[in-house]
Specification:
This protein is α/β, with parallel strands linked by helices. It has helices at about 45-50, 75-80, 95-105, 110-120, 135-150, 165-180, 195-200, 220-225, 270-280, 295-305, and strands spanning about 5-15, 20-30, 35, 60-65, 65-70, 80-85, 155-160, 185-190, 205-210, 210-215, 225-235, 250, 260-265, 285-295. The protein has a six-stranded mixed sheet with strand order 6-7-8-3-9-10, sandwiched between helices. Strands 2-1-4-5 form a four-stranded antiparallel sheet. A hairpin with a 5-residue loop joins strand 1 and strand 2 (about 20-30). Helix 3 runs parallel beside helix 5 (about 135-150). The longest helix is centred in the middle third of the chain and has 16 residues, at about 165-180.
Length: about 300
Amino acid sequence: METIISIKNLNKVFASGLQALKNINLDIKRGEIFALLGPNGAGKTTLISTVCGIVNPTSGSVTVDGHDILKDYKAARSLIGLVPQELTTDAFESVWNTVSFSRGLFGKQKNPALIEKVLSDLALLGKKDSKIMTLSGGMKRRVMIAKALSHEPRILFLDEPTAGVDVELRKSMWQQVHALRDSGVTIILTTHYIEEAEEMADRIGVINKGELILIEQKKELMKKLGTKQLTFDLQTPIQNVPSSLAAYKLELSASGEKLVYTYDGAVEDNGIAGIITKMAASDIKFKDLYTHQSSLEDIFVGLLHKS
């Protein structure tokens, strides 16, 4: 896929001396959904703010569809829609006027039909005449997305888009994000919700202490780093793992009723057949067995511990 955002050797050092970004190199592909994961203070918002021209980089370069964010700011910024974490909008203005005004800020001609479609797609059309102050938190979040889409950007940044939103509304917003991607919009989101990245992203980047520690296709990430656990529910509890099974590094539950085997799901010869054979030879019988695949959250936590 063609690159739409190119970040090269990007660094940001604040006046306090804090280095928020350390030599970031990242290419975002046109039409993908890219999720940026990281704990609080990792540099997610600083990176987004730099690409959007809100924060000036200390060194390095960022181009948006070929436009340098410093040398050609206006052209670069016109391609970007930004939904910040904070719900910043005029509480006494109507939904319709708020979204229409945002379009005008980018020098776009009035287009009531487009504004109507944006509000309809976000289930806001019925609230178009309502003042922002009367809306729920979830509705206000949708208004922020509508504002960001009002000038027809080709790139949409979502900084913690579902923070404070209930589960049902969160899943609805996931569907809307997929619909935007299907229409050709490139999506970059930051999130604390691991399931959000797992549900939506094509690729995932993990940032910690200002450094990108991993960039990977979601499926490849799960394949490379994901482990599986096979649990045997034993018919009769045992006190110790027999020496014949020591090589498999099985974990025995405190009650002695479960044996757990952790292995690489991508490896063809996973050793399970050997374990079952040796369990039978040791007269260890099981009544059930089941597997568990590592989630993205397991992988994420493991990466942060290593960095």
